Write the structure tokens for this entry.
Amino acid sequence: MKPLTIVSSRTPAGPLLEVAGDLDHSNAHDLRGAAVGAVLPAGSVLVVDLDELGFCDSSGITALIAVRNHVVAAGAGLVLVAVPETLRRLLHLTGLDQVFELRDSHRLQTN
């Protein structure tokens, strides 16, 4: 089991959370806490980078849903980037790939 680390920084669009390690029942609250602690002005975008995520159980997916609900309530957006293939498959099988915006990189296109 790899310990979970969450590093916060900023992008031009808003806050960035880089998640590494294993996201499970023992630490899913850490992800929710990091999202709640992020400054999310209306119209900003919270980017969650999952490139270094090693494992995610159902508690981790529930935490991602809670993060999304918090972000939407703040009037902001959420983008998951560099989602590992195993998690991407789970999101697809559960229909959550229609709920989350998934991107390959941090670079957010603006129209």
About this structure: The longest helix spans residues 58-73. The chain is about 30% helix and 35% strand.
